[in-house]
Amino acid sequence: MVKNYLTTFLWSCLGGSVFYLIHMPLPWTLGPLAAVVVLKVGFHKTVRWPVGIRNNAMIVLGYVMGSPFTPQTGYQILHQLPLMVFMTLISVGLCLSGGYVIYRFTDIGLATSLLGSLPGGLSQMAIACEEIEGTDPAAVTLMQTLRVLAVVFIVPFLVLHGLADKVDPVSKTMAQFSLTELPVLALFAVIVIGAVFLAKRIKMSNPYLLAPVVATAVLVLSGVHAPALPPAVISIAQICVGIRMGMAINVQSLAEQKKAFVASFLSVVLVIAAILSIDYVISRYGAIDFVTAFISTAPGGITEMGLTAMMVHADLSAVVAFQICRLMFVLMVALPLIKWWLCRFNGVTSCCSEYTDSSK
Question: Virtual CA dihedral for 264, 266, 270, 271, nearest 10 degrees?
Fold first, then answer.
């Protein structure tokens, strides 16, 4: 078992190094992802990686993403709250429209198409499949995985090779690590870990990332300086996350559901193009720059978009705030409404109550 873990980690480090040398976006996340897929498909190896390691890595990245929240950025975020809500509605609306188009022009059911296109967490959509009659969990998982992968590859590539003026590796964008700040870093570690346990108790979505972001931001906003982490720690955390992302990819499922694959990919590309156009117009007349707006509203994950923002010196706090706003809207408003509507559409009255029971 330990040998398998070590092989996976070293192979992923090799993948990250290759992506770094050829200047691929997010090399220490996407490199391990690609390496794990090659290890599974090309060498027919069983890949194992404890979810606990991934969760600890998410805590590290959450701390990094919460550290830029200063009182000044907090004021800017409050000032941009109407824009956040507007762009959240646009992003979610475009994704659901893409899902409806998939339903109209393929043999994929309406519930499956909508849940597969909704820009929320994969685990939340998988749970929703169990609670709504007529959904195909395999197709939803495929569509959600493809959406994340398409955004994770396309958005950083566009930003790094055309939209951004200045690009640095993530490790170079951080302040220098200092041993004299270890006591303060220990304080942050205690509070952040405590926040994660609390978030798990109250069943917060994605507690290993969101709780550190919120806890770190609150401390920084209260006047406590967040010490920088060693660049190697940040890179290792990205590798640990990339390994689990690669493990989640089922190449056989992609091959078996070609129609869903093609339709979903085209839908994601069109959504990204539409968001890119809207962001350009908003940046011309708003108070947010084009690159920050694009990364903030892209229907990807907080982790990947946050890392992209750090590489191109975008406003990281704004990106994280926009992404959290969309995630909270999807989980607290859009998903319950869609589930209620699908229950009515399918003529089922019990699935809405099943959602309440299963979430306890």
Answer: 10
Q: Which token pair is 232?
A: 């190697």
* Distance from C-alpha of 289 to C-alpha of 279, rounded to nearest angstrom: 9
Question: What's the rounded Cα separation, in Å, for the pair 261 and 108?
Answer: 11
- Segment-wise mean pLDDT, segments of 10 residues, the chain, 360 residues: 89 94 85 91 88 92 87 79 90 92 86 86 64 74 80 85 62 62 92 95 84 91 89 92 82 69 87 92 83 89 82 84 86 83 63 38
Is the distance from CB of 95 to CB of 299 less than 8 angstroms? yes
Q: Is 32 exposed, middle or buried (0-12, 13-18, 19+ CB in 10 A)?
A: buried
Number of H helices, E strands in the chain: 19, 0
Give the separation between CA 86 and CA 325, rounded to whole angstroms: 11
Q: How many Å apart are CA 58 and CA 308, to the nearest integer?
A: 15
Tokens of 99: 């899902």
**Are 172 and 231 contacting, i.e. CB atoms less than 8 angstroms apart?**
yes
- pTM of full prediction above 0.90: no
